């Protein structure tokens, strides 16, 4: 699938330190040691509503991670999926009386525009489910062949012998290691987030769907020995990560609402498929963003859309700065004050950066790198640039070239074009 044009990443002298982040599975900070190439997989959108501030926070966070890894001297291989066929997308298309393909195309296009505007580096592989069917089918067939998956009778399947396929979770050691949840805690969350614990014929209520046999009035694809149907939700990310990054890859990322079941299931499926562990070395999660007192979500309808702000004339770099002003592990609520503060900040930086001279910037570079590499402390990084801008504006610029260096550093490390 076409992604979007990546922004230019300016060079600055030297290298950043090794990157330390918080691993959800271990519950502590760990230093990433990816070797020459870091593999980054971030779960993409289900394209039935435009990019809201919660999405934007996630993709900007992992963009900053990619920038820190590059600055530390690693090459970054970045994979992102698009869940362009799934129950919520189909339900929205029916509700709105539109073709699901057009809905997915329209919302994916808008997402690409938002990512471009926000200066997010594009994935190397950007893939929809609908263009990865053959890969997913082969993986589900392999899971059936190695005894890790099983078929369940499906009376409402279109094909007489059509049957759904599930992963046999009870066979998997390590299930629950990522989320740290007990079975009792998992069951209700599984039901709320796309799972089907009540489905008759499953060996374990928590077993995730791998392949859904064709039903009437639902899109379907040729599944070879699986029969016609479409993939379950989690297997797309397993298949793409294993195929394009290999296991174990460096970081699996997404919002905290993906920890369970999505990331837990993606990981356990990857281990079942390859017979190796772990799926990813580190699992990183962006905290939820609220609006008007509740988590921003499509189901609640309390969305602040990047595209709506852009249409209202808000500079995308203001949006990016507003996001960076909150640490990725801290839940926060979007308010107009965020927008106001970021607008003032960008204006101040632009004034300070517009001269030929500025306050000395050599020390600032090292400190900025240190903040970003320290669990992506973007609020700390912004405060450092603020302090430099104040010194420059109050005392005038004595160091020729300093503004250019700071502008390049802010662009390279934080993705903020000033
Ligand atoms: Zn995913």
UniProtKB/TrEMBL annotation:
GO cellular component terms, A-Z: cytosol
Alphabetized InterPro entries for the sequence: Cys-tRNA/MSH_ligase, Mycothiol_ligase_MshC, Rossmann-like_a/b/a_fold, tRNA-synt_1_cat_dom
Single GO molecular function: cysteine-glucosaminylinositol ligase activity
Binding site for L-cysteinyl-5'-AMP: 43-46, 58, 81-83, 233, 255-257, 289
Catalytic activity: 1D-myo-inositol 2-amino-2-deoxy-alpha-D-glucopyranoside + L-cysteine + ATP = 1D-myo-inositol 2-(L-cysteinylamino)-2-deoxy-alpha-D-glucopyranoside + AMP + diphosphate + H(+)
Pfam families according to UniProt: tRNA-synt_1e
Keyword set, alphabetical order: ATP-binding, Ligase, Metal-binding, Nucleotide-binding, Zinc
Gene Ontology biological-process entries: cysteinyl-tRNA aminoacylation; mycothiol biosynthetic process
EC number(s) per entry: 6.3.1.13
Stretches of the chain forming a coiled coil according to its record: none
Protein's name in the database: L-cysteine:1D-myo-inositol 2-amino-2-deoxy-alpha-D-glucopyranoside ligase
Gene from which this protein is expressed: mshC
């Amino acid at each position: 699938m076409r992604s979007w044009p990546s922004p230019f990443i300016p060079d600055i002298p030297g290298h950043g330190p090794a990157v330390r982040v918080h691993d959800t599975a271990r519950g502590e900070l760990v230093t990433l040691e990816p070797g020459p190439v870091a593999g980054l997989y971030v779960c993409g959108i289900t394209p039935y509503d435009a990019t809201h501030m919660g999405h934007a926070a996630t993709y900007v966070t992992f963009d900053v991670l990619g920038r820190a890894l590059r600055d530390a001297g690693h090459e970054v291989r970045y994979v992102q999926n698009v869940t362009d066929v799934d129950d919520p997308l189909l339900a929205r298309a029916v509700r709105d009386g539109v073709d699901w393909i057009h809905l997915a195309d329209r919302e994916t296009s808008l997402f690409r525009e938002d990512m471009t505007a926000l200066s997010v580096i594009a994935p190397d592989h950007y893939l929809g489910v609908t263009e990865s069917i053959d890969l997913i089918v082969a993986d589900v067939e392999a899971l059936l062949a190695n005894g890790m998956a099983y078929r369940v009778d499906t009376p409402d399947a279109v094909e007489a012998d059509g049957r759904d396929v599930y992963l046999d979770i009870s066979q998997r050691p390590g299930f629950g290691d990522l989320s740290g949840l007990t079975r009792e805690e998992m069951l209700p969350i599984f039901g709320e987030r796309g799972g089907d614990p009540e489905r008759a014929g499953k060996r374990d209520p928590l077993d995730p769907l791998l392949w859904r046999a064709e039903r009437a009035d639902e899109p379907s694809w040729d599944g070879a020995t699986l029969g016609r149907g479409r993939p379950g939700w989690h297997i797309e990310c397993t298949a793409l990560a294993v195929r394009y990054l290999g296991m174990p890859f460096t970081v699996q990322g997404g919002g905290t609402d993906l920890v369970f079941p999505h990331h837990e299931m993606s990981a356990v499926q990857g281990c079942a498929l390859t017979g190796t562990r772990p799926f990813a070395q580190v699992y990183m999660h962006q905290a939820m963003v609220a609006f008007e007192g509740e988590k921003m979500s499509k189901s609640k309808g309390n969305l602040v859309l990047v595209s709506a702000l852009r249409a209202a004339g808000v500079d995308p770099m203001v949006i990016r700065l507003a996001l960076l002003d909150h640490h990725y592990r801290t839940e926060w609520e979007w308010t107009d004050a965020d927008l106001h503060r970021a607008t003032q900040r960008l204006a101040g930086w632009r004034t300070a950066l517009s001269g030929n001279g500025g306050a000395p910037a050599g020390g600032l570079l090292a400190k900025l790198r240190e903040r970003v590499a320290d669990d992506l402390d973007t609020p700390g990084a912004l405060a450092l640039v603020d302090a430099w801008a104040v010194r420059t504006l109050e005392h005038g610029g004595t160091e020729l070239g300093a503004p250019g260096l700071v502008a390049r550093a802010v662009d390279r490390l934080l993705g903020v074009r000033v």
